[in-house]
Design brief:
Oligomer: heterotrimer
Chains: A mainly alpha (315), B alpha/beta (326), C mainly alpha (319)
Number of strands of chain C: 1
Number of domains of chain A: 2
Shape of chain A: globular
CATH class of the largest domain in chain C: Mainly Alpha
Number of domains of chain C: 2
Largest sheet of chain C: none
Strand content of chain A: under 5%
CATH class of the largest domain in chain A: Mainly Alpha
Structural class of chain A: mainly alpha
CATH architecture of the largest domain in chain A: Orthogonal Bundle
Radius of gyration of chain C: 27 Å
Largest sheet of chain A: 2 strands, antiparallel
Low-confidence stretches of chain C: none
Number of strands of chain A: 4
Helix content of chain A: over 70%
Chain lengths: 315, 326, 319
């Protein structure tokens, strides 16, 4: 029953009373919804359990044949060769390079954009820019990959002649642009959650917009911003097609982003969709590297979680 | 939630009807190299018989996995079936009929302005691509003293692909044995682009890509045993004068699936010489001689299972032997 | 010489306050301009990249798009190949993804933000959600292959495609929901509680309506991501050549059920692109570019609808 039916003047007409059973029903609904909402949230744990299960069970067979020390320290990754070498370092460095470059692009650009959108831009500008940014999120990863390979790389090769046709720099930049919509949208929501009264206090003290932005709004929204960047960084680490296409398939331990090198994700794609037999040791290696990637992402996320908690502000 | 009865009735009827929808589909999957051939067959077959055919793109490995589980009827492969895959098939009681459908030539390509590398020997290619060359053979002059002193830039297929597999087997003598420091890619178009943009490049790729890019690239002839330099073309691949870089492409058919009339029709359709020669040629591969298709049809009719290759590649296989032996 | 009480500035210090303060303010204002310029610069880069990308696609592909391209099935001949099965497949898969991801994501976000007690279980779930965003999409594909296709026996169907993509975008929807809910002023919630409302009532009548715009943001970004994924779908068995459409309910012989299309074989536009772009014939490359243009158009349409809804909601509910 609606509240206007449930509440009415009591029999003495001196005081308000609530229809019997109304409160109990409401409380019961609340309890049901509490439980009902728990399950989707817990779903993420089920999914992670399933992922860990599938990664570990397949890696088990792998690590039975390849010692962990070799996996972690060997400098060559050539699982297909007649004398296979299973050192994850080449794949790992490539992954780190591309993620690092992506963050180097997304951090400043994202910060500028989110501050501009939430503090400087007029409503009209904001409402046009956000959709365009979200369109950036909608570009298929395959398109980004070929765009990086066929357009951006030749373009940058005119500026940097030593840039290889397959390299880590261009996919890294593209990755940074790819995670920009996620980062900016969620950060900007967080920034707009900071109450106007705080901002106005800053302005009253004579601060300019950038001072208010950096000293009032950003610290207030920091936990949301960190959450946004964490999500973006996770996405960058886990991106497959852009790297498979534009960075090449060649495991290469290098400190030079101008060269091509296979990342962990590019390797996984290569093996899953390629011509190698499933069930072989090479196939199991994709789960081993997948597990390594999972652990690394998890460490970053745990660190980020505690960082977020420190900066959580309540209004 | 007023009356759940209509919804329940709806769900029941849909559940009951689900199984009757996909009775007649031939399911094909497999290698991306063989995919264009499967697509051509599937398209023509569906046009002529109105039986549905679907083709997936899971790769040779993924295709065999599905095939050996009995999920699909036909799988295309750019290499013969391997031991670990045969084991899976045996475990799941899946028997297969190995049918070559086409020949693929592997060509070495260079930039059009490359005047020196017009004819090379297998030994020279081996010197370039063998594992010991990694980091050491980086200059054309090291390959042959008459070559200019220019850096050697290498391009090719990734180490998981059948193209790479066969190339290393034919050139280096062993599968999965090559240097690791070259620009490796899944997509031969990228190799085309890499070689077309670099004067000092040398790459290898399937013949179909060469045919489409004749203007952008130059092919390298291979010196045969009799001293003749043979260019990689459809004709030389078909009459087997271009060696050792020709390899058969396969379709594996599930013997039990052949009990289904639509799959039987499809297998016969594939192995009819008229269809095969036309469709395979259309997509840029080398069709088998008509006689080979006939032999293939007989093999299907006889339900002869098993592989000619005992789990590994062989160089210079004659298609007729492949079809007669088992 | 004046005696000054501690804290008071002597009057002969006034010129100092004027000049230096002016300079400081001037500097701040200049930096303000720099920031604004920086923001615009970032905008230009992002827009510029998107524009070049679209222009690149359009110059190659726009001319290819005609009625035939939209209504033909794939073919071995580039000129005769079309995208019918692909765009129908994408539309249907997106529908399933949205229907699955939205309720699950919003529910999870609401729970984590409003109901969850601050204990280790909740911390675990939070870390989980963020971590799942980092799992490579193809691992989701492998997971779905094992659990949904084989484990639950659902086969390589549109339903499984929707399920795997929903899982993929769940983290984004959850995080966006949480941020949206967090942005609601406390006074509003506390007012409602003060009136005696239960948590669920507050959620349904106050929080959700207020947070809808932010939730929609998450939905847009998530679905835009999902529409462009190829690798996980190939892994679960999406096809690259399929020359027929999923069964339309109540048509055919015997008549198809209402939900038969869910269990159907299918293909999607990114897979078609991926397939065509790696073929040797240049005609297929043009087809791939055309598919790219159409995919962007579909994404734009999907976004436009959601943005319109978000704009309307924002106008009504923003303080």
């Amino acid at each position: 029953m609606e509240i206007h039916e449930a509440v009415g003047l009591g029999p003495t007409r001196q005081a308000w009373t609530v229809a019997p059973g109304y409160l109990a029903k409401r409380r019961a609904l609340d309890r049901v919804m509490r439980v009902a909402l728990f399950f989707p949230a817990a779903l993420s744990v089920f999914v992670t359990t399933a992922i860990v299960f599938i990664l570990v069970s397949e890696s088990w067979g792998f690590f039975a044949k390849v010692p962990l020390i070799e996996f972690l320290t060997d400098t060559q990754w050539t699982p297909v060769f007649a004398q296979p070498r299973f050192g994850i370092l080449p794949l790992l460095t490539a992954t780190f390079w591309t993620t690092g470059i992506a963050l180097a692009v997304a951090l400043p650009l994202g910060a500028l954009l989110m501050i501009y959108l939430s503090e400087y831009a007029s409503k009209a500008v904001r409402e046009t820019v956000k959709p365009v940014l979200e369109l950036l999120a909608g570009v298929p990863t395959v398109v980004y990959g070929y765009f990086a390979l066929l357009f951006l790389t030749p373009l940058l090769q005119t500026l940097i002649p030593e840039l290889g046709g397959l390299n880590l720099l261009v996919p890294g930049i593209v990755l940074g642009i790819m995670i920009l919509p996620t980062v900016v949208s969620i950060s900007e929501d967080a920034m707009r959650a900071v109450p106007a009264s705080l901002r106005e206090g800053g302005y009253a003290l004579g601060m300019t917009r950038w001072q208010v932005a950096l000293r009032v709004v950003v610290p207030g929204a920091l936990s949301g911003i960190i959450a946004a960047y964490l999500l973006g960084m996770s996405r960058a680490i886990g991106e497959t097609m852009v790297l498979a296409i534009a960075a090449g398939q060649n495991p290469n331990l290098t400190a030079n982003p101008l060269e091509g090198a296979a990342t962990i994700t590019a390797y996984i794609v290569q093996m899953s969709l390629g011509d190698l037999p499933h069930g072989s040791l090479e196939y199991q290696s994709i789960f081993a590297v997948g597990l390594a990637l999972f652990v690394i992402t998890l460490l970053f996320n745990v660190a980020g979680f505690f960082l977020q908690r420190r900066f959580r502000e309540a209004y | 939630m007023n009356n759940p009865l209509p919804i329940a009735a709806l769900l029941l009827t849909t559940a009951a009807s689900i199984n009757t929808v996909w009775a007649e589909t031939v399911q094909v999957d497999g290698s991306s190299t063989v995919f264009p051939i499967s697509e051509a067959y599937a398209e023509e077959f569906q046009k002529q018989t109105r039986i549905k055919v679907t083709v997936g793109l899971s790769g040779t490995g993924g295709g065999f996995k599905k095939f050996c589980r009995g999920d699909i009827d036909v799988t295309g492969a750019s290499r013969p079936i391997r031991d670990v895959e045969m084991k899976l098939c045996t475990e799941n009681k899946v028997e297969f009929i190995e049918l070559p459908v086409a020949v693929d030539g592997l060509a070495n390509v260079v930039h059009p302005s490359n005047t020196w590398a017009s004819c090379m020997t297998v030994e020279e290619l081996k010197k370039i691509w063998e594992p010991a060359a990694q980091g050491k053979i980086t200059n054309w002059k090291q390959v042959r003293s008459s070559f200019p002193d220019a850096p050697l830039k290498l391009f090719g297929a990734g180490t998981d692909s059948g193209t790479y597999d066969y190339y290393t087997f034919a050139i280096n003598g062993k599968e999965h044995e090559s240097r690791g420091d070259y620009s490796a890619t899944e997509d031969d178009n990228v190799t085309v682009q890499g070689v077309a943009n670099d004067k000092n490049a040398l790459g290898f790729m399937g013949l179909a890509y060469v045919e489409e890019n004749r203007g952008k690239l130059k092919t390298v002839a291979i010196k045969q045993a009799d001293g003749k330099c043979v260019q990689p073309t459809i004709e030389t691949a078909q009459n087997a004068t271009y060696q050792p870089l020709t390899r058969p492409l396969f379709m594996y058919v599930n013997k039990k699936s052949l009990d289904k009339p639509e799959v039987q029709k499809y297998a016969d359709f594939m192995m009819t010489a008229k269809n095969g020669t036309k469709l395979v040629r259309e997509v840029g591969y080398v069709p088998l001689p008509a006689k080979a298709f006939e032999l293939g049809k007989k093999k299907v009719a006889a339900r002869k299972t098993g592989t000619y290759f005992e789990g590994g590649s062989k160089v210079g296989v004659k298609i007729e032997d492949l079809l007669k032996a088992n | 010489m004046m005696t000054t009480a501690p804290g008071l500035v002597p009057s002969n210090a006034v010129p100092f306050v004027n000049g230096d303060v002016r300079r400081a303010i001037g500097r701040s204002q200049r930096i303000d301009i720099v920031f604004a310029a920086g923001g615009l610069f970032a905008l230009i880069i992002a827009f510029g990249l998107l524009f070049t990308l679209l222009a690149d696609l359009a110059t190659d592909g726009l001319g290819r798009i005609d009625y035939d391209f939209l209504t033909d099935f794939p073919s071995r001949r580039p000129a005769g190949a079309g995208m019918l099965s692909a765009w129908v497949g994408t539309s249907l898969v997106m529908l399933v993804t949205a229907v699955l991801a939205m309720p699950l994501g919003v529910a999870a976000g609401l729970y984590l933000e409003e109901y969850a007690p601050k204990n280790w279980v909740t911390a675990l779930i939070e870390i989980n959600v963020s971590n799942l965003a980092g799992v490579p999409s193809i691992v989701y594909g492998l997971l779905a292959l094992g659990f949904f296709v084989y484990g639950l026996g659902l086969g390589q169907s549109i339903l499984v495609a929707g399920m795997v993509l929903a899982l993929l975008i769940l983290p984004v929807v959850i995080v966006a929901t949480r941020e949206a809910v967090r942005s609601i002023p406390r006074e509003m919630k506390e007012g409602a509680y003060a009136l005696g409302a239960e948590e669920w009532q507050v959620m349904w009548h106050y929080i959700l309506p207020f947070a809808r715009p932010g939730i929609l943001t998450g939905a847009i970004i998530g679905l835009s991501r999902a529409i462009g994924e190829a690798a996980p779908l190939i892994t679960i068995g999406a096809l690259a050549f399929i020359a027929f459409l999923p069964p339309v309910p109540f048509t055919g012989d015997p008549p198809a059920g209402l939900f038969d299309w869910l269990m159907s074989d299918f293909t999607v536009m990114p897979i078609q692109m991926f397939n065509w772009i790696s073929r040797p014939q240049a005609g297929f490359h043009i087809n791939a570019a055309a598919t790219g243009v159409l995919l962007m158009a579909m994404t734009l349409a999907m976004n436009a609808v959601a943005i319109l809804i978000r704009f309307r909601l924002r106008r009504h509910s923003r303080t």
